[in-house]
Amino acid sequence: MKLGIIGSGKIVHDFLSIADQIPDLELAALSTTKKSHQIGLELQEKYNISKLYQDNTDLFNDANVDTVYVAVPNSLHFSIAKAALEAGKNVICEKPFVATTDEARELKEIADKNQVIIVEAITNIYLENFKFIEDNLAKIAPIHVVNLNYTQYSSRYDAFLEGDIQPAFDPKKDGGALMDLGIYNLHIIIKLFGKPDSVKYFPTIQKNIDTSGILHLGYSDKQASSIAAKDSFSPNVSTIEGEKGALIIYGHPNEMPKVGIQLLGEEPKVVNHNKYSHRMIAEFIEFTKIIDQHDFTAADQAFTHSLNTLAVLQEAKNQR
């Protein structure tokens, strides 16, 4: 995979720090805004990126780029992903995918027309610890209660309170706790249990944005809650509870550093099966395989899951 990256924010820095651990990945190009050009120069030198652009169109026209990683504020995902697909590039789009299911379907139609692939970058469902949760669901079934918690006191929250509204807290840029953190919980719940019968979001609103909130998902045989908070602190323990035991996620749900199972009447078993030191490695190894092998079946399955998640996210967002 010959990757062109659009963006120069924190997630790009995170990704570039582990890019050399992804087999068959070439850092072909980086595109930044003119304002961030100096950051781009520093990243290009530090990570040996072949080309640096200040105009996304130049990156789209680069014949050495076959895949575009869209790593920009949420509100820009759709327009940039669409332009990349129309240029015949595969697309890896950061979470949350796009704003609406209509936008997602439009992108998929363009991808299919141009015989390229589009996937959403969402770390947790590609982790080995998530596979442990999947593999052990039957041991605790029937399952009746799901409670996921992603609370992380934001490094931008104090500035937000002082009136410095950055994209992560900007309603005009599709920010907020639900979109930033709650999306991880949603991917886990929907990957494990499918779409719910009912969706109800109870947000804490400050300055017209949800700084935290609790999302309730109702199923015929279980109830699920998703806590997402950028204005609070928590040790972050999540549980999936059944009649025969419980599965536990210890730590932030985006990286799932430890997981466990406790069967009724037994001591808990805590494990870490994640193979890699950074949460983004597993997903990009999988994306590289899908794109290099032109595995449209796997890409279609990933898109269907992202679309189902987005449908719930959209319904919850409309209740803010």
From TrEMBL:
Gene3D superfamilies recorded: Dihydrodipicolinate Reductase, domain 2, NAD(P)-binding Rossmann-like Domain
Where does the Gfo/Idh/MocA-like oxidoreductase N-terminal domain lie?
A: 2-118
For this protein, what is any one GO molecular function term? nucleotide binding
* Domain GFO/IDH/MocA-like oxidoreductase: residue ranges: 149-246
User: Pfam families from the entry?
Assistant: GFO_IDH_MocA, GFO_IDH_MocA_C3
Q: Which PANTHER family match?
A: PTHR43054, SCYLLO-INOSITOL 2-DEHYDROGENASE (NADP(+)) IOLU
The protein in question is named NAD(P)-dependent oxidoreductase
